[in-house]
Specification:
single chain, globular, 7 helices, 4 strands, two-stranded parallel ribbon, Rossmann fold
Length: 159
């Protein structure tokens, strides 16, 4: 959340001449509801099932860059599916940068709604501790917030 998955994904797709898909937007279109509405109606567990279904569908696509939600790799065997069907990248961004971005963000995010900056920092630290085991299974890691597209493409294509 706030790491720049959608922003980098769009740039990377354009740079590589591929289509970009934001998985949250895909889920919203398939369900005719926003992610916050889906969370409210079905709870996190119900949302994660819908997210899994979307991931299974998207894993069949070719020549696309997909930005998943931050929790997507952490449920079911999603990270394994992602690694089997695509080239996965973990945007490993400093938690302070994430907090600053999320505080300024206009996007409604159900998991952080109403949190102060201090509460947000605690949430980010705790969430990253829980999710890191999944995130680090990605084939590639980017640790610089403004990574160069040439370097990213070289890294991905060096396999």
């Amino acid at each position: 959340m706030g790491s720049g998955k959608s922003t980098l994904g769009k740039k990377l797709a354009k740079y590589a001449g591929l289509q970009f898909i934001d998985m949250d937007h895909y889920i919203e279109k398939r369900n005719c509801k926003t992610v916050p509405q889906l969370f409210e109606e079905y709870g996190e567990e119900g949302f994660r099932k819908k997210e899994r279904k979307a991931l299974e569908e998207l894993s069949e696509f070719t020549d696309v860059v997909i930005a998943t939600g931050g929790g997507a790799p952490c449920f079911f065997d999603n990270v394994d599916l992602m690694n089997r069907t695509g080239k996965t990248i973990y945007l490993n961004i400093d938690p302070k940068i994430l907090a600053d971005r999320l505080i300024k963000s206009k996007t409604e995010r159900p998991l952080i709604k109403g949190k102060s900056k201090e509460e947000l920092m605690t949430f980010i630290d705790e969430t990253l501790k829980k999710r890191n085991a999944f995130y680090t299974q990605a084939r590639y890691q980017i640790t610089r917030p403004n990574a160069n597209l040439d370097e990213i493409m070289e890294m991905i294509n060096s396999e």
